[in-house]
Amino acid sequence: MTSTTLAPSPKTRTVPSKPSARRHRKERSLPLTILLWLCALYFLLPLFWLFIASTKDNSDLFSSFGLWFGDRFSLWDNIASVFTVRDGLYLRWTLNTVLYAGVSAVGASLIATMAGYAFAKYTFPGSRALFSLTLGAIMIPLTALALPTYLLFNAASLTNTPWAIILPSLVSPFGVFLMRVYAADAVPDSMIEAARVDGAGEFRIFWQVSFRLLGPGVVTVFLFALVATWNNYFLPLIMLNSSSLYPLTVGLAQQQSASAAGGGAQALFSTVITGSLISVIPLIIAFLFLQRYWETGLATGGVKE
Amino acid sequence: MAIRSISAANPAGTNTARRSSVSKRRQTTAAYLFVLPFFVVFTTMLVIPLGYSGYLSVFKNQLVGGLSFIGLDNYIQAFSDPDFLGGIGRMLIFLLVQVPIMLGVALFLALGLDSGRAHGAKALRLVYFMPYAVPGVVATLMWGYLYGPDFGPISQLFRSVGLESPNLLNSQNILGSMMNIVTWEFVGYNMIILYAALRSIPAELYEAAGIDGASQYRIAWSIKIPAIRPAIMLTVIFSIIGTFQLFNEPSLLDAIAPSAITNGFTPNFYAYNLAFVNQDVNYAAAVAFLLGAIIAVVSYVVQLGTQRSERKQRKAVR
Q: Distance (Å, rounded) from C-alpha B142 to C-alpha B137?
């Protein structure tokens, strides 16, 4: 309890107070506003199209104008068919995605937080070398690793299991980097010292004192790890071959190529489009809800070197 | 201070010293335990596969004679392989055209939002960032439909004003179409990194300039951009890595535009095809390994180059 009151939440000062002080004598500029909103159209229109297309049945999809509603409003029918086609496989894919991305993100952010915290707050032999190794690994393209990882997992009979997706996704060198910079600022040394004088062990200090202060940093690493696994296509594509294990990305891609290839399967187009729309929603909601935290985490963590 | 004076007055002062060395040892142990999980997964998921990939790449599997050691032959083959070189060439075009456009737009948007002069800046920030939360697969499918000649709104617009609709999916245009997809996906991500960096510049740094009457452009160019150089560098490095790894876009567009996408359209797509279509794991490993090396070299050269130009600039200022 005391530690929450002790915590001066050092992050709140950086973000909200400063811009409002700055904003006071800013007059708004109409040309800039118009220009920035025009740019926004570029980002919004495809998503708007996705929504509009999800409300159409197949015949409207081909006959009506792409950026406005068709004759019939079929959104609910489409959603129903997304979840019923092939015995509700889509729901299965969604649950798989949640499982893979959720477990990976929790694991990756925890592992990265511990490592980053240790690099920031302890001096130990080899820490410089290990940290340079981590920094160098940011440059290694993870997809170039996927192939040998596949072969190794194949030898260990781990392919076509959830582990094949989760284990490689636990490595987050950028997360370690971000947490190191963040922890250096967010956890005052004096507080760790005080806890030590009180007789707390290092692990207790980490969990009960430091971890609370690392909140925004952890949320940032968590969200970026979540997106990385949620949106990953390459790894599950090569690791999994039974469609009941697919995440949404591989499932949708497979459905799409099935509907593009087979003339008789045309009814699938609206299902693929609506399925795509639904798959986009969870991450956007996560970003919206956690915005306050991850923007703070990025602002203090991602920018200094 | 307080602790030391107490221990000096304490006849058992040596005891405290010993206790502090015990505590130091405990801290070191704790630190190792904290980094242990990361380096366990790091080693098993990164170092070992990398080593294994290097090992595989020096062998060749032949129908007659089986697996045999061939040294660097796979690498030599890659350097004269038109498919591989073509992919690398396409990615270099990507680096020279798409990355500057994407990062330029991201920087412009970040500066625009940071200036605090636009209405609805908070909403704008979210709108720009939203595509990042869209899976690359969905983004590619979506743009595939948008480009499509049948019910794609782009063609519909062209036709409605009586023009012939451009074929955005033929072999001449597909690289540009792909650049557009990647730009759409990642402008917001880069913008948010740059924006976060801009927010953490202490306001005093340009308040003085503002009072002196420096224009917004001047402040942006001479103060803000230099101040966020590390963040810009980060986005450049990430973009280089991302470009060479392109896979989703070619592999999905392949389904709707098979004639425009070749097996080696991007190096990563090529490595995939080699391993899983041609079943040539050894050559695929060499290609993947080489790809990693190229990325490391390009990133390193870019970093080195900017460091040098920065140093020159600093000297010039002095």
A: 9
**A chain contacts of residue B203, beta-carbon cutoff 8 Å:** 18, 21-22
Regarding pTM above 0.80, the answer is yes
Token readout for B302 is 């870019």
CA distance A242 to A200: 50
Nearest CA in chain B to A63: B151
Residues on chain A touching B245 (C-beta within 8 angstroms): 141-144
E runs forming strands in chain B: 59-62, 66-69
Paired tokens of A155: 């030898």
Query: 10 Å Cβ neighbour count for A262?
Result: 10
A122-131 burial: b if 16+ Cβ within 10 Å, else e: bebeebeebb
- Most A CBs within 10 A among B4, B199, B282, hence the mutation to make, goes to B199
3-state secondary structure of B245: coil
B134 contacts in A (CB within 8 Å)?
A: 47, 231, 280, 283
Contacts of A61 (CB under 8 A, 6+ apart): A53, A70, A269, A270, A273, B151
Q: Is A124 close to B133, i.e. CB distance below 8 A?
A: no
Give the CA count within 13 Å in the CB-facing half-sphere of A163: 11
The first and second tokens of residue B29, run together, are 């142990």
- Angle of CA points B268, B254, A280, to nearest 5°: 85
Both structure tokens of B94: 């990507």
Query: A68-118, pLDDT tens digit by residue?
Result: 888 788 888 888 888 988 888 999 999 999 999 999 999 999 999 999 999
Q: Considering all CA atoms of chain B, what is the largest pairwise distance in Å, rounded to the nearest integer?
A: 98
B190 within 8 A of B128, measured Cβ to Cβ: no
CB-CB under 8 Å, B142 with A49 = yes
C-alpha angle A228-A230-A231 in degrees, rounded to nearest 5: 70
**b vs e for B122-143, b when ≥16 Cβ sit within 10 Å of the residue's Cβ?**
eebbbbbbbbbbbbbbbbbbbb
Query: ipTM of this model?
Result: 0.86
**Block residue for tokens 């942006």:** B220
DSSP helix/strand/coil, B61: strand
Does the distance separating the beta carbons of A127 and B109 come in below 8 Å? no
Q: Out of A14, A40, A283, whose CB is closest to B200?
A: A14
Which residues, other chains included, contact B213 with Cβ-Cβ below 8 Å and sequence gap of 6+? none
Using CA atoms, how far apart are residues B238 and B232, in angstroms rounded to an integer?
Answer: 10
Distances (CA, A) of A213 to A3, A216, A288, B38, B175: 10, 8, 22, 21, 46
Name the CA dihedral angle for B81, B86, B91, B92, rounded to a multiple of 10 degrees: 90
| Three-state secondary-structure class, residue B66 | strand
Q: Which residue has the tokens 């207790």?
A: A204
**pLDDT, tens digit, for every residue of A238-270?**
999 999 999 999 999 988 888 777 654 556 788
Of A268, A196, A236, which Cα lies nearest the Cα of A96?
A236
- Which structure tokens are listed for B3? 């602790």
